[in-house]
Amino acid sequence: MNYLIVFLELLLSMALVVGALAFSRLLAPRPAVQTESRPYECGAELVGNARVRFHAGYYLVALLFLVFDVEAAFLYPWAMAQAQVGLVGLIEIVVFISILLLALVYAWKKRVLEWL
Amino acid sequence: MPAWLPEALIFFSLVFLLLQESFAGERGVTPLLAWGAQALALFCLPFLPGEASLLGGSFLLHPQALLFKAIFLLSALVCTLYAVERPNPDREGRIRGEFLMTLQASLLGAMVLVSAGDLITLLIGLELATLPAVALSAWARRNPQSGEGGLKYVLLAALSSALLLFGFALLIGLSGSLALEAPARPLPLQGLVLALLLAGAGFKLSLPPFHLWAADVYQGAPTPVAIWLSTASKAAGLAFLFQLLQGPLAGALPDMLPLLALLAVLAMSLGNLVAVLQQNLKRFMAYSSISQAGYLLLGLLDGWSDAGLAAMLYYMLVYVIGNLVVFGVILERERDCGATEIEDFRGLIRLRPGLATAMLLGLLSLAGIPPLAGFTGKWFLFAQAAAGGWYWVVLLAAVNSTISLYYYLRIVRQMFIEVDGDLPVRGDGGTRAGRIIAAGTVAICLAGILPWLYEGMRGML
Amino acid sequence: MRPSDPFFYLFALLALGLARACVCSQHLLRATLYLAGVLFCGAAFYVILDAEFLAGIQLLVYIGGISVLLIFAIMLTRGPDLLKDRPSPLRRNLALALSLSFMGLCSFLVLRTDWPAALPAEPHENPVRDMGVRLLNPGEGGLLLPFEVISVLLLCVAIAAIYLARPGSGEERPLS
Questions:
Q1: CB–CB contact C149 B121 (8 Å)
Q2: Does residue B90 carry a pLDDT above 50?
Q3: Confidence class of residue B429 from pLDDT cuts 50, 70 and 90?
Q4: Same domain, B301 and B240
Q5: Any domain includes A78
Q6: Same domain for B34 and B134?
Q7: In this structure, what DSSP letter does residue C61 have?
Q8: What is the distance between the alpha carbons of residues B25 and A55, in angstroms, rounded to a whole number?
Q9: CB under 8 Å to B378, separation ≥6 — which residues?
Q10: Using one digit for the tens of pLDDT, what is the confidence trace for B238-280?
Q11: Residue C172: per-residue pLDDT
Q12: Integer CA distances (angstroms), B442 to B229, B362, B373, B454, in order
């Protein structure tokens, strides 16, 4: 069970967060006034909800990230098999990457990557 | 000529379209890059080797694949030409490279699908054929209907992909092989695998109960995309079914026959009954295509035979040409008056006699009236079902054909009989689309009379 | 009972609870987080089955990529609390009956089936390397064609998604 350690660490980190929250709930004084329970913002009034609408640019960047994320997942087996597949494998993987690079070229030229 | 030439042509055209779209800026892409490659690939098909196996059997070429590729390339070519034809400056601007590129990708997927020699290639080909088509159906971004259709399509495509993947995972896991062949011994869970795979094929073919996306998607999608979905995408579904029936499901066909017969009857009847009620011609064509998928399945009912295969391929070709003609007329009308309601076709014979005649012949061919090609195609299919002893299915199919005649004639009535009063806008004819429609109409008439097309197909297989 | 069995049941229970919470949550953002939890349980299953590579992909692509994409997509919409629609009791019960019957069918089939020996003849020494060799092998039994087609698929989907999601500027007009 090599992963027992990982599992224990998972439990530990969860316990840490839950414990910290629970302790602060138990020990913290209850504020009498409602404003005091708000998040601390240097004494200023709250501006609004944290859930504002995002710009569509974020979505596009996340989309491109996802594409190259999948590419990375495919690169890993190639990296492991490099010794076996040799030059032919290198050429094949370069073709694979170049096809995907076209997506980056397109996004670049269409100014998807320019921020606002 | 190398066996991979058509795919390579389409692939490079896809790459160049994308590069041109990226770098050309406002000038836009050269549509010739798209339809030129398709036409060239179509032209290459007769010169390809009849049998070939590349990449260790991942990519196979055989007559059946060649015929399917011809159908895909033909409908892609016509879709592209319709899409780039006569851009209306108010609504369309220039044709976008992304559009042509996505269409090429869908075409490439369909071509890989028919040539696939193992299960993974088959699955990836199907995905490549489907996902771009989903994106295309939502292409008209300012039209909320297009977005709605796209959303419904993507959700149901995801569901069918999930079922299909589950089926493939079970199949590969239980047989332990990726080969596209019947497993050596009967698999455990064969029924479940079969149902899951059939669901995936049924979705592409829009067979009930997997047809729910069709009407909204056809109506919302830009018309060239609706053409693509109703022709090549459906042919890809048939090709996928063939691949399964020749591969992993080969032994299961005799047990599947009652189910297939039921699906066929369901598709025909449901498509027909709902089509009668439609007011929008694109929705109408969606239900018509559902019922046509039902007729197609009749060719399987005598078990797997070359005659049945040829009958289905022939009918597919005839159906594709008929749809290309009818949708071509719909597209022309849409460009003239901006809508696709059946009402907009009123008095078309006085406004645009050529279009009205083409539409008449296209619809009658879809209904299966002799001596048009649709009749011959249905004849062969019915003969196959009868040869298998499925007389009640043939009877129901004949009844359904009669019902379908009623609703196809409803449109003919609008075009030819109700010609009084204020007629809708006339519009001016496009040249290239007109020629395609004319060529398709001639093909419908000739294919029904000349027997060598079907015989030739049968001889090839 | 193998030593990994308790972990399987633990994560299975967790996945079930999270999946239920994801489906029933009235709050889209929370539902996404529950979904990420379900996906994490999937990664844990892969680890239990000795498929570390798949577990890594699950974490990298599904939790790291798709969940983030989902959260951005939700943040693009007007408000994450839009899910006010409560399904009618008829629809709820119908959905419940349908899901239960599908579950019943699957469990019935799985329990009734005489499964073949699941282990391969020789265990892979380095499965990821073997996978890489197979993916890039252009010869017999290789998967080079689907591998390269995947890149076309990713490319095309990326382009189409960018086109559809890009905020419309004046110069582009939709097709018909």
A1: yes
A2: no
A3: low
A4: no
A5: yes
A6: yes
A7: I
A8: 24
A9: B295, B315, B368, B397, B401
A10: 999 999 988 888 888 888 889 999 999 999 999 998 998 888 9
A11: 43
A12: 23, 10, 10, 17
pLDDT tens-digit profile of A81-110? 988 888 999 999 999 999 999 999 999 988
Out of A52, A69, A106, the one facing C65 most closely (by C-beta) is A69
- Residues of chain C contacting B, Cβ within 8 Å: 106, 109-110, 113-116, 120, 137-146, 149-150, 152-153, 155-157, 159-161, 163-164, 168, 171-176
In chain B, which residues have their Cβ closer than 8 Å to the Cβ of A106?
Answer: 18, 21-22
List, as one string, the DSSP characters of B151-202: HHHHHHHHHHHHHHHHHHHHHHHHH---BSS--SSPPTTHHHHHHHHHHHHH
Asked if B331 and B285 sit in the same domain, the reply is: yes
- Alpha carbon distance C80, C29 (integer Å): 6
B265 shares a domain with B234: no
Does a structural domain hold residue A49? no
Buried b (16+ CB within 10 A) or exposed e, C59-72: bbbbbbbbbbbbbb
Using the 3D structure, point to which of B207, B225, B248 is the last residue of a domain: B248
Given B248, B275, B300, the domain boundary residue is B248
Burial class (CB in 10 A: 0-12, 13-18, 19+), C102: exposed
Range of the domain at B151: 1-248
User: Considering only CA atoms, which of B443, B170, B407 is closest in space to residue B328?
Assistant: B443
Full DSSP string of B333-369: HHHHHS--BGGGGTTHHHH-HHHHHHHHHHHHHHHT-
pLDDT of res. C171: 41
Q: Give the residue carrying structure tokens 């999608």.
A: B221
Q: How many CB atoms lie within 10 A of CB B165?
A: 14
Let me know whether B264 and B134 are in one domain. no
Is A92 among the domain residues? yes
pTM for the model: 0.91
CATH number, domain containing residue A64: 1.20.58.1610
Cβ within 8 Å, pair A102-B15? yes
Single out the residue of C136, C127, C143, A70 nearest to residue B123, CA to CA: C143
SS3 for B295?
Answer: helix
> Is residue B286 domain-shared with residue B370, that is, in the same domain?
yes
Q: Judge whether A64 lies within some domain.
A: yes
CB interface of B with A, residues 16-55, below 8 Å: 18-19, 21-23
- Tally C-beta pairs within 8 A across A and B: 14
Task: Examine the domain organization and report whether B418 and B358 are in the same domain.
Answer: yes
ipTM: 0.90
Task: Write out pLDDT tens, residues C44-95.
Answer: 999 988 888 999 999 999 999 999 888 888 888 766 555 566 778 898 899 8
**SS3 call for C25:** coil
Q: In what helix (H) or strand (E) does residue B52 lie, and over which residues does it extend?
A: strand B52-54
| Measured distance CA(B112)–CA(B123) in Å, rounded | 10
Whether B440 shows a pLDDT value over 70: the answer reads yes
- Only one residue has tokens 């991942």, namely B58
Do C55 and C90 contact (CB within 8 A), yes or no? no
Residue of B55, B139, B188 with shortest CB distance to C142: B55
Strand, helix or coil for residue C116: coil
Residues in chain C within 8 Å Cβ distance of B125: 146, 149
**pLDDT score recorded for residue B89:** 37
What pLDDT does residue B186 have? 73
Q: Which residues in chain B are closer than 8 Å to A108, comparing Cβ atoms?
A: 22
